[in-house]
């Protein structure tokens, strides 16, 4: 197994967990869904890395996980960005602070997922043989 891919999943999982805790720290109980999704995603990334290390799953599973995370967190980021634009247009200030925090942190998760997917693909053993 490729230890670079395992380390990549560890870093991605850690970024997700840190962003989840930051969202909860800054936004409080309103960020419980971001906290749950990023903690779950981080735990799954660490679990996939462990299962790849012991040889229970293929290396393509980590690539698929990175792809799925980039789609999910990208959609969540876009939804919060559109809500933030709606809040600003209607001059509501109550949720603008929380939505802007969500947009920034979800963007970090989405970009790190896309970057890990790219690096993961480069490190795949199957892609070098063709």
Present the secondary structure layout:
Layout (H helix, E strand, L loop, with lengths): L2 H25 L4 H23 L5 H30 L6 H28 L1 H5 L1
Helix pairs in contact: 1-2, 1-4, 2-3, 3-4
Give a brief description.
With 130 residues, this protein is mainly α.
- Helix share bin: over 70%
The number of helical runs is: 5
Following the backbone from N to C, one meets helices and strands in this order, namely: HHHHH
Strand content: under 5%
Counted up, domains total 1
Main sheet characteristics = none
Based on secondary structure, the structural category is: mainly alpha
Radius of gyration: 16 Å
Q: Span between N and C termini?
A: 18 Å
Task: Show unreliable segments.
Answer: none
Would you report the number of β strands?
A: 0
In one word, what is the shape? elongated
Mean pLDDT: 84
Explain the overall architecture.
The protein has 130 residues and is mainly α. The chain has one domain. α1 packs antiparallel against α2, α1 runs antiparallel to α4 and α3 packs antiparallel against α4. It is elongated, with a radius of gyration of 16 Å.
